[in-house]
Amino acid sequence: MPTTLLTRVKSKLFVHARRKSRSLLEGEYASVFHGRSLDYDDLRDYVPGDEVRDIDWRATARSQSPLVKRYVATRKQNVMLVIDTGRGMAASTRSGEPKKSVAIAAAGLVGYLAQRHGDLVGLVRGTAGSTVAHDLRGSEAHLELLLRAVDAATVLDGDQSNLATQLRWIVRNVRRRLVLLVVADDKELDPALDELLRRLHVQHEILWITVEDADPTAIEGDRTAYDVADTYTLPTLVRLDPRVRAAYAASVAERVLRTTELLDRRGINHARLGSSDEVVATVFALLERQRRARR
Q: Least C-beta-crowded within 10 Å: which of 35, 107, 193, 206?
């Protein structure tokens, strides 16, 4: 039986995170998206990162070890994965993996955490020319279907990307409050995104992950490199020229700065990913920043 995409996501979680780290990650998710909309359930051992206010001091005194109150959610969150499936996401990232694989790993991890906490997960995906929406549901089977839809839709001969198309669709069609996880290609953002994000952030909670491009000037000379946007092959002598490398690095740094300024201006926590091995640590850090921002 072929390995499912969700199984790969879980493998990353269990291979790259110890048990205590996994507890911290789940605790960060619950703290960010469930807050105090919880009912008391039982007690568990304290782990670093738990809220001090959740410590049960009487139970701690009796057991001689710190115990915290465990809560269960009294209301579900609606988590919408918003994923760029344009042709750029079929290209390679810094690790050499297809960018869509890193996107699936990040979205799958957040979706899995949501599903574990009883939340509903949906998907809005697309390109510059089209948007496809998938319903909010709460099962692992549904999450697997969402990840497969992203994988199948992201191909090298697909349409160009423009996340403004998908975010505009959400503005026009969604009335309920959502937690939006946006997974974006590493490209210049459409100027229209600034106003769209302003409107969306009033109603929704937004997290943003950019999947990094591979550096064509760092690819070995015996390999062919080309731009998937226009299928233009990059001549080896040109891309390995030190002056070209310096110019490319400067261009990327400027683009990253513009993206950072736009997202910071709208109060949106964001991160960059270049490998599926970085997903667990990056998602944890992103959730932690979101928790701190809400205090």
A: 35
